[in-house]
C-alpha cells in the first residue's frame, strides 16, 4: 500500500456523496450535471467531532481526479 492516504472531499468543492441502491458510492456535483462512481477506491464513513453531518473518506495513493480533496490527517 506504500504511500496511500485517506482523503476527504473539500466542502468548497461543490460535490456531495450519494450511495445508490446497488451499493455504489457516487460523487455528484451540486448542479447534478456531473457524477462519478468511486471505482477502485476503498471508502468509509467518517464523522468529525465538529461536523454536523457524516463525510466519506477514500483511500488511495492520490485523491480521485475530480473535485477538490484534502488529505485527512489521522494523527
From TrEMBL:
Source organism: Rhodococcus daqingensis
Taxonomy, superkingdom: Bacteria
Identification of the protein by name: Maltose regulon activator MalT
